[in-house]
Amino acid sequence: MSGPSPTATSTRLLLVRHGESQAQVDRVVGGPTGCTGLSDLGRRQVRALADRWRAAGLAVDRLLASTLPRAVETAELLAPALGGLAVAQDAELVELEPGECDGLSWDDYQARYGVDMKADPYAELSPGGESVAGFLLRVGRALHRIAVDHAGQTVVVACHGGVVDGSLVCFLGLPLQRSADLDLRTTNSGVTEWLVEVDKAKPLHWALRRYNDVAHLEAMDEGERSPDPPSIG
Predict the structure, then answer these.
(1) Residue 81: φ, ψ to 5°
(2) Which pLDDT belongs to residue 233?
(3) CA within 13 Å, CB half, 172
(4) Residue 232: which of 146, 147, 134 has the closest Cα?
């Protein structure tokens, strides 16, 4: 039996869904216009994760975030527990681009557009927005790039439920036509961990170590949490 290639190295990716956002509380589409950062509860959720990591002495090399305010704020709250790392923003890590429905209430979105993305993964959320298919292509490309660029490092990525769920579709080989039917429940501030073997002579090998780890939220009241939007959010 052959062992690991002597030229291979591994990247540890810790994907963190942002804390509860104010857009969730206000029930609005949270694109660049609708996103105003975290709610008070969202900040408490992320601080609980920061306390957990500080106590564990987690060593991290890089701290990345999507460019949306809720993800940037999440990364900034985690940074002091990670040795004061600077937050590097990456536009390819944002949630599904909503297009012209950005900032609408969920109810107004359903009344005006009501796109059934489960039925058609190639349909845009609204004009100028992304489809599920296009979104998954972007997510897979971005995470692949990060794994290669930071080979041998541990990287925390403050991102979105759609990005976390998209990583499962992309790297577990789940079929596109059924991706929107997956009943994934990625929780605010939940941690999903991938170990990626990087070898220039071979395709990347993605090993899922944990999904939606929320041990740091055990003391919180489940009833406090706001619902997610009806689409990727």
Answers:
(1) -80, -10
(2) 41
(3) 15
(4) 134
Q: How far is CA 182 from the centre of its chain?
A: 16
CB distance 90 to 13 below 8 Å? no
Phi-psi region of 134 (alpha: psi -120 to 50; beta: other; left: phi over 0): alpha
Q: 214 by DSSP, 3-state: which?
A: coil
Which residue, 193, 185, 191, 187, is CA-closest to 220?
187
Q: DSSP 3-state assignment of 117?
A: coil
Which one of 20, 73, 95, 124 is the catalytic residue? 95
User: Does residue 18 have an active-site annotation?
Assistant: yes
> pLDDT digit string (tens) for 55-80?
999 999 999 999 999 999 999 999 99
Side-chain-facing half-sphere of 196: CA atoms under 13 Å? 29
Name the 3-class secondary structure at 82: helix
Q: How many helices (H) and strands (E) does the chain have?
A: 7, 6
Q: Is 92 designated active site?
A: no
Pairing type for strands 191-198 and 9-17 reads antiparallel
* Residue ranges covered by each domain of the chain: 9-219
Q: Is the CB of residue 37 less than 8 Å from the CB of residue 64?
A: no
CA distance 195 to 209: 7
Residues contacting 28, CB < 8 A, separation 6+:
34, 103, 104, 105, 106
pTM above 0.85, yes or no: yes
Fold of 9-219: Rossmann fold (3.40.50)
* Residue 127 CA from chain centroid, whole number: 23
